[in-house]
Design brief:
heterodimer, A: about 300 residues, MetI-like fold, 12 helices, B: about 350 residues, alpha+beta, Rossmann fold, OB fold (Dihydrolipoamide Acetyltransferase, E2P), 2 domains, six-stranded mixed beta sheet, five-stranded antiparallel beta sheet
Chain lengths: ~300, ~350
């Protein structure tokens, strides 16, 4: 009886969030699943030519750009996620162990989080500039030749490398913050106990710190993988709408970039359904990886 | 392994409070193979002392010897100590066996030998069948034993326990303190444990070290300290129910509470504080200490009389007497005081007047 009384109140409290979610999240999801089955849907005219089960999927899967986008996206996921998680782990462990200037370094590492991705992308593009960039300057100091990272006619691998460096760096801030708060909540007595038992530092890290931090690591890994599958702003930030170095347009296209590209052709027949098909494929891939991830976590995460 | 503390001092530099002396010029010799209780109220510096013996805290001044070896500047891992933390600090992601074997793996003991030694220790502390459990699946008492096994498995020279019983419920506490005593006897390891519970310290220690405000108050066998307290603090801290205190005076070699003469002491006439243990009273026909009983508590074999303190308004004192004497509230009685349970302290310093 008591519980029923509070039901209306509870729904009222939930309403603002629920309404926003319904309008901006659930409706678009259902709409995507609807659009993907329309033949030659025209967004401006609102017209379509009947229904189809597979046509839009077949079309996008056969597009040469899609294969490129898929490979780029997978590359971003499988390189940037492990590298940034491990780097963040090491940096936060180091930050946690220093006493002086801890706040200062914490601020420095957190800055990327509050800075606009497009602005940082432009700064990175300049860091990698062929003639004036810091990277090539350092290369020259240590006797290496300049490399055309992101300039006119730059190669795929060099520009992909620069992109990955950017993505890894900009993702560090949040991960470090989460790991650091996790580290600070680990009872200091575990470390005292380890010290008394003459545990080497490397073993303290691998046998105590990492296992005790495993819930955070799992959380960060799952969210980073999802985030990496959706990567788009980094490419735009560094290369603009060309999605690649000048002269090599579209070299660094990602799946989400394809979605946006299709939407930008909203006047042409089928473009929205094409975007919907790409989103749903991305959704399916992300779902599979997340399920695998959760399965692995269940076995490896303690508590 | 005999442990010797020489002028051991620890000063903490706290940003808000400034300098605090947690341990002040502590001189103690802990005999080899004994179980020693560091006892005192919270904040008396007993845990700080333990952590300095462990090496996790660095003394501000003074020296620590294990036998003839000066270990003051030796890091904890090289001191050969086993330490049991107040909340055990068992690694939650490892099984009991992995927890116990962890110190051995650090010492690169071969796996087969490590397993054997871990099992041996687990059997000693009585958790031999729980090797595959995680700490979370154990009761507080079992976790405590795992922590002791982990501390002992590397055969340390000294075993240190920080408030070993404080996380256990009352029933388990009784059982576990016997268990600690048994393990200490069987291994013969020099053991130091910290506690604020006087009953706990008295019941299992070979010797107790009583501390207050970082300063050693008295060292000795529990019963000796109880029977011959050096000062008022020691007398007050030991004993349940606590010692009764009266404002008295010495006149012509007689100990007086108000007009009642309760004993003899050859010293100058002066104001003193008189302490009498609750069990130090007996009912008698002839005594100048006449009182009226306020309340009577009979618990099992003891009857406790609660009586208004004749020298301190609003306070009461307790006298434990034979339960066979039926006494009712309101009865007027006469009390005798046993000389061995009677202590006289200086009014200003609290030192025992001999």
């Amino acid at each position: 009886m008591l519980e029923e009384k509070h039901n209306i109140k509870a729904w009222l409290y939930l309403a603002p969030a629920m309404i926003l979610l319904l309008v901006f999240t659930f409706y678009p999801i259902f709409n995507a699943f609807f659009l993907v089955f329309l033949r030659d849907f025209n967004f401006l005219a609102g017209s379509f030519d009947g229904f189809t089960l597979t046509e839009n999927f077949v079309y996008i899967l056969n597009k040469p750009d899609f294969k490129k986008a898929l490979l780029n996206t997978l590359m971003i996921v499988f390189v940037s996620v492990p590298v940034s998680v491990i780097l963040a782990l090491l940096i936060s462990a180091w930050l946690n162990s220093i006493k002086k200037l801890q706040g200062f370094f914490q601020t420095i590492f957190f800055l990327p989080y509050v800075t606009n991705a497009i602005a940082i992308g432009m700064a990175f593009a300049f860091l990698f500039h062929r003639n004036y960039g810091l990277i090539n300057t350092i290369f020259n100091w240590i006797g290496l030749p300049s490399i055309n990272w992101v300039g006119l006619g730059a190669g795929y691998w060099s520009s992909m490398f620069a992109l990955l460096v950017f993505i890894i760096w900009s993702g560090l801030a949040f991960k470090i913050m989460v790991f650091l708060s996790g580290l600070q909540s680990i009872d200091k007595q575990y470390y005292d106990a380890a010290k008394v038992d003459s545990t080497p530092r490397s073993r303290i890290f691998t046998k105590i710190t990492v296992p005790l931090l495993s819930p955070m690591i799992a959380y960060i890994t799952i969210t980073s993988i999802i985030g990496a599958f959706k990567e788009y702003t980094a490419v735009i930030g560094m290369f603009g709408v060309r999605l690649g170095p000048a002269g090599n347009d579209g070299a660094l296209v990602t799946i989400v970039a394809l979605v946006y590209e299709a939407i930008s052709r909203s006047g042409s027949d089928g473009a929205y359904s094409e975007a919907a098909a790409a989103s749903i494929i991305l959704f399916a891939i992300t779902l599979v990886f997340t399920l695998i991830n959760m399965q692995v976590s269940k076995k490896r995460v303690h508590f | 392994m005999e442990i010797k503390l020489e002028m051991l001092t620890k000063v903490f530099d706290n940003k808000e409070k400034g300098l605090t002396t947690a341990v002040d010029k502590l001189d103690i010799t802990i005999p080899s193979g004994k179980l020693i209780g560091l006892l005192g109220p919270s904040g008396c510096g007993k845990s700080t002392t333990l952590y300095m013996i462990a090496g996790l805290l660095k003394p501000t001044e003074g020296k620590i010897y294990f036998g003839d070896e000066n270990v003051t500047d030796i890091p904890p891992e090289d001191r050969g100590i086993g330490l049991v933390f107040q909340n055990y600090a068992l690694y939650p992601h490892m099984t009991v066996a992995q927890n116990i074997m962890f110190p051995l793996e650090n010492l690169k003991v071969p796996k087969a030998e490590a397993i054997e030694r871990a099992q041996e220790m687990a059997d000693l502390v009585g958790i031999g069948e729980l090797m595959d459990r995680k700490p979370k699946q154990l009761s507080g008492g079992q976790q405590q034993r795992v922590a002791i096994a982990r501390a002992l498995v590397k055969k340390p020279r000294v075993l240190l326990l920080d408030e070993p019983l404080s996380n256990l419920d009352a029933r388990l506490r009784l059982a576990t303190r016997e268990e600690i005593k048994r393990i200490q006897r069987e291994t013969g390891i020099t053991t130091v444990f910290v506690t604020h519970d006087q009953e706990e310290a008295m019941s299992i220690s070979d010797e107790i070290v009583l501390m207050e405000l970082g300063i050693k108050q008295q060292v000795g066998e529990p019963q000796d300290v109880y029977d011959k307290p050096d000062n008022l603090f020691v007398a007050k801290f030991l004993g349940t129910p606590p010692i009764n205190l009266f404002d008295g005076h010495i006149k012509d070699g007689k100990i007086m509470i108000g007009d009642a003469n309760i004993g003899q002491l050859k010293t100058d006439d002066k104001e003193v504080i008189v302490g009498i243990r609750p069990e130090g009273f007996s009912l008698t026909e002839r005594s100048s200490l006449k009182v009226e009983v306020d309340l009577v508590e009979t618990i099992g074999r003891d009857t406790t009389l609660i009586i208004e303190n004749p020298t301190r308004k609003g306070e009461t004192f307790r006298a434990i007497v034979d339960a066979e004497k039926r006494i009712k509230p309101g009865d007027k009685i006469k009390l005798n005081v046993k000389p061995t349970k009677l202590f006289v302290f200086e009014k200003d310093t609290g030192e025992l007047v001999n």
